[in-house]
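Many introductory courses stop at the sequence. We go one step further.
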Amino acid sequence: MSRIPITQVPGLLPQLRLHASASYEPGSALYVYEIVSTDLGMAASASNQTVTFFDRSTLQATGTLAHHKDQITQMRARPNSLLTSSLDGEIGIWDLRKPLSAPALGFSAGDALLSFDLGNDERMLVGGAQLDEEMHLSRIRFWDTRGSSMQAVRVFESMHSDDVTQIHCGARDGRVLSASTDGLVCTFDPAQEEDDAVLAVANTGASVARCGFFGPDEQYMYAQSDMETLQLWSDDATLLADFGDVRAVAGSGVPVDYMAGFRYDIATQRLFMAAGTDAGDLHVFHVGAGLLEHAQVLAGGHSAIVRAFDWDAHTGWAATGGEDGRLSVWAATQ
């Protein structure tokens, strides 16, 4: 039996239906890793180290970035810009108003990068690296995007003891959230020296695959492990809810094999989770304080694991990408 209370609340969100579906690259066996919305269209990263832009209505490709020399690990969108990080140790900032032959700015880490984010002032760039096994260091680097050097201006080396899988720059007080396969979720003040920077540390007890702030004042955090467990924390590292293995919801009649992503809806002040099946269906849940409300299922867009999920509740659309190499767009029924 499931340890997680499940209720069916189909009216919680506008119901989405499959609008369009297409291959990232026809005839290929690529995985689609991530999707973000940009001013140039829907940007999708794939296992061939490229990012392709698609028209969201038609899924016609409109442009491709082919710059990185290794797997693209994360993307972030800003007005007229796209930022990408890679295991090649570089973060690129792309000006979407110009030809896509090369990034407008490139920042070098020297380590394989797993995660990054850009502060709200669009000046502080923060990147999290893989563990340097030779030096036994897990580095978080800081760059000044308006400086004259593309090299890091500061480095933290003792925040984590393993791969830094997540970096998020908060909107409140300039805090930064980091997470690692060491099981720790840290909030810290990047303006301080490393020894004085830590604000709170949550020990999840498992390797952290995803995390993020949520709440109207970013006063809460979610943490997903690579063992498909989910916890909710306050920003002072007080555990609020421990859902355990989310795959246990199958005991409530909702098949789940993995978590695919989270989105916080500011308008309703709700945290939503997308969780999928190996066959390609995606279930959307509202994550409450110790309960999950099943809002809808996105079925028929994929035939394998869904890795990419982007969604806006109030404009009534979602986009997904998967290990089947396909992109799907979902629109609210009229």
